[in-house]
Amino acid sequence: MVGRPEPSPGLLRRLDDLARAAFPAVCAAVLMIMASGPTGLATLVPAVALPCIIFWSIFRPGAMPPPAVAVLALLQDLLTLAPLGTGVVTLLVAHGLAVAWRRFLVRQSFVFVWLAFCGFAMGTAGLGWMLTALLAWDLPAPAPSLHQAALSAGLYPAFAFVLGRIHTAMRRAEETV
Questions:
Q1: Beta-carbon contacts of residue 23 (< 8 Å; ≥ 6 apart)
Q2: Do the Cβ atoms of 53 and 84 come closer than 8 Å?
Q3: Alpha carbon distances (Å) from 14 to 19, 34, 90
Q4: Which of 25, 90, 92, 128 is 20 to 30 Å from the Cα of 119, by its Cα?
Q5: Which DSSP category does 106 fall into?
Q6: What is the CA angle 23-170-27, rounded to 5?
Q7: What is the pLDDT of residues 9-47, one digit of tens each?
């Protein structure tokens, strides 16, 4: 009827909305914790965090707000024993750039988005290396940063495939309600 207000959403609807909103950040945190296990690869945690943050920043920016990125980046710093703040700065810069270029990247092909992500990976690795050098007053070896960027770029297609399917399912669920 015209003029009649819709009934307020019930508890299950609110829980569903909350779960859908929290999923990207919680999923990224769980994947980062799993990646910090005894793999022997110290660069695996940032290589898992960056694809999740960039994907959700481009395709669902409301679900990956800057405070969530900051918390995930702090978790990354703690899990990798990196100087506190380096991950926060690098991931917030990457998130900000991804959100700024979102309108352009959403309309592009997967290959173009992947190439853009490779640029994000190189940029975040370089920025992290520079911040570590500034905080340590010493030039660290560039090989770990390059390895992190290459590993992150290599993992992105698998993450994008899975996260893309999840994003499509979330969008379908929102359209049916």
A1: 63, 166, 170
A2: no
A3: 9, 29, 33
A4: 25
A5: T
A6: 20
A7: 778 888 888 888 899 999 999 999 999 888 767 679 999
| Contact (CB, 8 A) for 59 and 104 | no
Surface-to-core class of residue 69, CB atoms within 10 Å of its CB (0-12 exposed, 13-18 middle, 19+ buried) = buried
Q: How far apart, in Å, are the Cα atoms of 58 and each of 1, 31, 72, 164? A: 38, 19, 17, 11
Please give the angle made by the CA atoms of 123, 126 and 128, to the nearest 5 degrees.
Answer: 105
Cα distances (angstroms) measured from residue 135 to each of 18, 125, 138, 139: 38, 15, 8, 10
Q: 103-145, pLDDT tens digit by residue?
A: 999 999 999 999 999 999 999 999 999 999 999 999 999 999 9
Cα 137 from Cα 12, distance rounded (Å): 53
